[in-house]
Amino acid sequence: MCTEALRWLLLIHQLPAKPAYARVKVWRRLQALGAVTVKNTVYALPAVGDGREDFAWLAKEIEELGGEAIVCEATLVEGLTNQSLRDLFDAARDQDYSRIADEARQIADRLADGGAGGVPDVVLAEAATQTARLRRQLDAVIAIDFFDANSRLAAQGLVSGLEVTLQGEGNMSMKGAAPPTGALRKRTWVTRQGVQVDRIASAWLIKRFIDRDATFKFVPSTGYSPEPGELRFDMFEGEFTHVGDRCTFEVLVAHAAVDDRALIAIGEIIHDIDLKDDKYGRAETAGVRSLISGLSTSGTSDEQRLARGAVLLDGLYDSFAIKQDGGR
Questions:
Q1: Residue 322 — pLDDT band, cuts 50, 70, 90?
Q2: Which of 324, 148, 173 is nearest to 243 (CA)?
Q3: Calpha distance 137→131 (Å, rounded)
Q4: Is the pLDDT of residue 251 over 80?
Q5: What does the H/E/C string look like for 204-267?
Q6: Domain assignment of residue 176, yes or no
């Protein structure tokens, strides 16, 4: 969704001190709608879909609880830019996705603890129930993820990974979605606009090690239909995206069967930055995170981010390669 032409719905309301449950009820409804706080009792939604009707029904409920409420539409909100408002929505959804991802990792750890003797049936049954609950929660969050928050793919990959494991489908393969390695030549590689760490690193990997003639295309996060011959990466339903607890960069390295310890090391850094799980805990991660955050500032185009990221990752790769060669 483009931020330049956004319109916002605002719910401005006031509730009486009693009954006390009224505030909790309204707050829960606002959370379920995906609304964010702009100021005190002023909440916002993007003016898309059923947002106006949702706010209208909630305003009616507030009035029935003895309160007052109005719904209005605005193109600007005092003290906030379109981007800062969008960031509020993304931050709220990132929290939701992170909670789901953390629970999914805990379930995966319990399943992995089964070892050679297998996972007890009671543990499998409990994991299946918890995974089904997480899937419902994930679908509910996606429904109110208006701007495709960055943590979405990680949560989707982890929950889908649990489902595959519990269904006994073996390894976390791409299920035939991705073409064979030999077909990854002279392609148009498509990803979401506003590239961040995993997409920047994946584009560098593609261009340097997989498809030297690659061209890149940046599209909205939703509603895009790929053209023949295009390959999508790090986006919903893409040929290359998060699988289980692996980020897109790691999936690409595995699919292309690139046997390079320097790339494995970079993949561990990108994993920890993107998934925020500190799985590998490499000393270089904090510095790389700061550098990539700096080159991804607002106002830079996606092409500029890829170009600057390539310089950074070239240097990082060369550094790891030198260490592998013993400093020679």
A1: confident
A2: 173
A3: 10
A4: yes
A5: HHHHHHHCCCCEEEEECCCCCCCCCCEEEECCCCCCECCECCECHHHHHHHHHCCCCHHHHHHH
A6: no
The CA distance from 206 to 194, in Å, is 18
Is residue 69 situated within a structural domain? yes
Exposure class string for 297-313: b at 16+ Cβ within 10 A, else e = eeeeebeebbebbbebb
187/315 same-domain check: yes
Residues 272 and 192 occupy one common structural domain? yes
Q: What is the 8-class DSSP label of residue 116?
A: G
Per-residue pLDDT tens digits for 68-87: 999 999 988 778 888 899 99
Q: Can the peptide bond before residue 46 be classed as cis, meaning omega within 30 degrees of 0?
A: no
Can you name the residues that pair with 188 across neighbouring β-strands?
Answer: 215, 230
Q: Are strands 230-232 and 188-192 parallel, antiparallel or unpaired?
A: parallel
Greatest alpha-carbon span in the chain: 77
Given phi > 0 = left and psi -120 to 50 = alpha, else beta, which region is 251? alpha
HSE toward the beta carbon, residue 86, CA cutoff 13 A: 18
CATH assignment at residue 13: 3.30.70.240
**Whole-angstrom Cα distance, residue 52 to residue 9?**
7
> Cβ contacts of residue 108 below 8 Å, gap of 6+?
158, 161, 162, 165, 244, 245
pLDDT score of 324 more than 80: no
Helix (H) or strand (E) holding 26: helix 21-33
Q: Are residues 67 and 11 in contact, defined by beta-carbon separation less than 8 angstroms?
A: no
pLDDT at 170 over 80: no
Among 167, 160, 235, CA closest to 202: 235
How many domains in the chain? Answer: 3
Per the CB < 8 A criterion, the answer to whether 58 and 29 are in contact is yes
**What local confidence, expressed as pLDDT, does residue 1 receive?**
46
pLDDT of 173:
45
Domain end (from 56, 74, 92): 74
**Domain co-membership, 141 together with 221:** no
